[in-house]
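Notes from the 1:1 (GR / supervisor)

We went over the backlog. Supervisor wanted to see one worked example end to end before approving the batch request, so GR pasted a single chain during the call. The sequence is below; no edits were made to it. Supervisor asked that the structure be written out right there so they could see what the output format looks like.
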Amino acid sequence: MALQRKQIPSPNYSSRGGTKVRLIVIHTAQGATTIESLGNYFANPSSQVSSHVGADDKAGVIGEYVKRPDKAWTQGNANPHCVSIELCAFAEWSASEWQKHPNMLANCAAWIAEEAAHFGIPITKLTPSQVTSASGVCQHADLDAYGQDHWDCGGGFPIDEVLEMARGGGEEMEVGYPDEFWAWANWYLTTNRDPDERPAGVPKEIPDAWWEGQKEVEMISKRFGMTAGERDWIDWVAEGKEGPRPNVPQTIPSRWWDDNEWAVKRS
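Structure output shown during the call:
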């Protein structure tokens, strides 16, 4: 399911000036312990700070303070390139303390998945040397001087675990690609890929997330091309040969075994 976004608008935002979003950045709030108290802070014009969203321990709910198209004010010179989340947590937390907040970590992962799908950003952990040019996910600390030299989310933050959860997908990961992705995927899979007929709006460099999505479309299309008997047999094998064997040939065609390898990976 997609996250529920509780709207608490902040006046502290501005235009991106046409800059492309390529960074998903994770922060710790260092004070606010709920998305509501964080939203109240961002709602004060005198604070002069904001973030796109915030997450606390409420399962499946995040606060939304600045809309995606706009620039939030939370990471200095990097702001135009970023979409950001503030976790209602502290950079001082140990690894064991972070594990006491599974809902917050799950909310963060789900939000990363949604933003990655929306912007076509790969769910790849960036190093400080990569953040000025690459696309991916990082913590505030990874921005260094580019993001005002903060140290959140701290050494205990389980970023690898969070990114692995984000890669697990969900509703937004499967259906949340932009229209340009679907135009490109259709062109890539069904035409001779004439550069002169490349769909409008498709970026020159295809994001890694789009390639993964294209593989998904290709595999699903492959399944539609199978016979009913082949699909029944694949499902039976993938489920551990539970129940009676489907009415299929005694000698399974080699192509079916190739397709079954794909199906087992998908199961």
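Supervisor's comment: The radius of gyration is 22 Å.
Batch request approved.
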